[in-house]
Write a structure and sequence with these properties.
Helix content is 19%, strand content 31%. A hairpin with a 2-residue loop joins β9 (113-116) and β10. The protein has 7 helices and 29 strands. It is elongated and about 95 Å long. It has a 7-stranded mixed β-sheet with strand order 1-19-21-22-18-14-17, with helices on both faces. The protein folds into 4 domains: 2-20 and 174-318, Molybdenum Cofactor Biosythetic Enzyme, Chain A (3-Layer(aba) Sandwich), CATH 3.40.980.10; 23-45 and 148-172, Molybdopterin biosynthesis moea protein, domain 2 (Alpha-Beta Complex), CATH 3.90.105; 50-134, Beta Complex (Molybdopterin biosynthesis moeA protein, domain 3), CATH 2.170.190; 326-398, Beta-clip (Beta Barrel), CATH 2.40.340.10. The protein is an alpha/beta fold and 401 residues long.
Length: 401
C-alpha cells in the first residue's frame, strides 16, 4: 500500500481507537484528565439563601409600607447561623455570603444606607424586593447534573467537584506511551554535539504535548543498528500500549523501522501519505492491541503528524469532545505546485468581524522548526489544487492557541 491520502490515513487511524478503561483519582490530581462519570449535586446550590453584598437584610414589605429606618438587631458573618428579626422595624447587618433567615428577603448595600445610633437608614433610592439575594437552589437543585462524562477536567471543574464533596473522580485511564527516537546523529540535550550532530528535541516536544492530557510518556533512544532497534521495539511492544517513533521510516540505507516491524509481526496499516510535511509516516498495530505511530524524523513532520493524526486519535479514544479542526480564512494567495496535500504553518488572528483568519509563514522545509514558536496552526490545503486564493476557507489544526 503506497501513498494513501490524508483522508484515508485519518480513517484508518480513527478505526483503531481504544478504550483503556477508567480509574479513580483524588480530585486534586485530576487536572487535565477526562471525566468518566456524570457528577450530581449532593444538595441545593446554593444550599441556603445568601447575601451577595455587605449591608443590611430586611423584610421588604416594611419598606414598601414606607419605613426607611431600621433598628439593627444583630450583626451576622458568613458561616454563622442565620439571625432573625423579631419585627418588621428591625434589620440584620449582614456580610457577603451569609445565610438569610426566612424573616428577611431583601439586602441593601452599605453604599445605599447610613448607619448611626444602632440603626440603618435607607437613602433616597429605589429598593426592589429580593435584591442582592442568591436564593437556595437557584443554580442547581439537589440531584441535578453539573458535569457530564467526557469533559476535560479544568480548574473550574475541580472547584465544582470540591463544592459537591467529590473528593475522588472516575477518569479515563490513559494509554501507556513510549517515545522512541532513532538516529546516530542525535545526542542528549545536555551534551555538546559535534559539528555534524544534533541535539534530540522530538522526544521532548512530544512528551510536552502529551503532558497536556496527563500522559507521562517514557523516552528511549536507539542508534541506527537493526538488531538494537528490533530488540528495543520487541520490548516496548510488550510493555506499552502506544509506541511513538521518530525517524528511520524513509527509504535510506539506515531506515530500519519498517523492516523491524515486519520481522516482529507488527501489521502495517499504511506507509507513506500524500502530504507535506510528513510523507513517510508509518502506522500499524500489533496483535490488534498495541499501536505504532512511526513519524519521519524532521521536527516539523513530527509536530504536524502528532497534531493531525495522533491527538485526534487520543481525544476520540478518551471520549473528549473537541472543536478541532477549526476553519480559517486565508489572507493571501499562495501556490503549492506538488501533488501532495500541503500543511502550511500559519499565524491565526481574529478580524474585526470576529472571523478566524490565517496567514502562512515561509519556511525552509520540514527541518526548519524555528517558526513553530511564531505560528499557531497548520492549515490543511486540498490535494486536488495547486493554487489557493485569498478569502478561501480551509481547515486549521491549532498547536499554539
Amino acid at each position: 500500500m503506497e501513498f494513501i491520502t490524508v483522508e484515508n490515513a485519518e480513517e484508518i487511524i480513527q478505526s483503531q481507537t481504544r478504550d483503556y478503561g477508567t480509574v479513580s483519582v483524588p480530585y486534586t490530581d485530576s487536572l487535565g484528565r477526562v471525566l468518566a462519570e456524570n457528577l450530581f449535586t449532593d444538595r441545593d446550590l446554593p444550599p441556603f439563601n445568601r447575601a451577595t453584598v455587605d449591608g443590611i437584610a430586611m423584610a421588604y414589605h416594611a419598606y414598601a409600607e414606607g419605613q426607611r429606618t431600621f433598628k439593627i438587631s444583630a450583626v451576622q458573618a458568613a458561616g454563622e447561623t442565620p439571625a432573625a428579626i423579631r419585627s418588621a422595624s428591625e434589620c440584620i447587618e449582614i456580610m457577603t455570603g451569609a445565610a438569610l433567615d426566612h424573616s428577611v428577603d431583601t439586602v441593601v448595600r452599605y453604599e445605599d444606607i447610613a448607619v448611626a445610633g444602632g440603626a440603618a437608614t435607607v437613602k433616597g433610592i429605589e429598593i426592589k424586593q429580593r435584591q442582592n439575594v442568591h436564593f437556595r437552589g437557584k443554580d442547581k437543585k439537589e440531584g441535578d447534573a453539573v458535569a457530564d462524562a467526557g469533559w476535560f477536567i479544568t480548574p473550574a471543574l475541580i472547584g465544582l467537584a470540591a463544592s459537591i464533596g467529590k473528593t475522588a473522580l472516575m477518569v479515563k485511564q490513559l494509554p501507556k506511551v513510549v517515545i522512541i527516537t532513532t538516529g546516530d546523529e542525535l545526542v542528549n540535550v545536555e551534551e555538546n554535539p559535534t559539528p555534524y550532530q544534533l541535539r534530540r528535541s522530538n522526544d521532548v516536544t512530544i512528551q510536552s504535548v502529551l503532558a497536556h492530557y496527563g500522559i507521562r510518556a517514557d523516552k528511549l533512544h536507539v542508534n541506527d543498528d537493526y538488531d538494537t532497534i528490533k530488540d528495543t521495539l520487541q520490548h516496548c511492544l510488550q510493555s506499552y500500549d502506544v509506541l511513538l517513533l521518530t525517524g528511520g521510516v524513509s527509504m535510506g540505507k539506515f531506515d530500519h523501522i519498517p523492516q523491524a516491524m515486519e520481522h516482529l509481526g507488527v501489521k502495517k496499516l499504511f506507509h507513506k501519505v500524500r502530504q507535506r510535511p510528513g510523507k513517510p509516516f508509518w502506522f500499524g498495530t500489533y496483535c490488534n492491541q498495541q499501536l505504532v505511530f512511526a513519524f519521519p524524523g524532521n521536527p516539523v513532520s513530527v509536530f504536524m503528524c502528532l497534531h493531525r493524526y495522533f491527538i485526534p486519535w487520543l481525544e476520540r479514544s478518551l471520549g473528549i469532545e473537541t472543536s478541532s479542526p477549526q476553519h480559517a480564512v486565508l489572507q493571501h494567495d499562495m501556490d503549492f505546485p506538488y501533488p501532495l496535500q500541503y500543511f502550511a504553518q500559519v499565524k491565526l488572528a481574529i478580524n474585526h468581524q470576529g472571523v478566524l483568519t490565517a496567514r502562512a509563514v515561509e519556511t525552509n522545509g520540514s527541518g526548519d522548526f524555528s517558526n513553530l514558536i511564531h505560528t499557531d496552526a497548520f492549515m490543511e490545503l486540498p490535494l486536488e489544487r495547486n493554487t489557493f486564493k485569498k478569502g478561501e476557507v480551509y481547515k486549521v489544526w491549532p498547536y499554539n492557541v
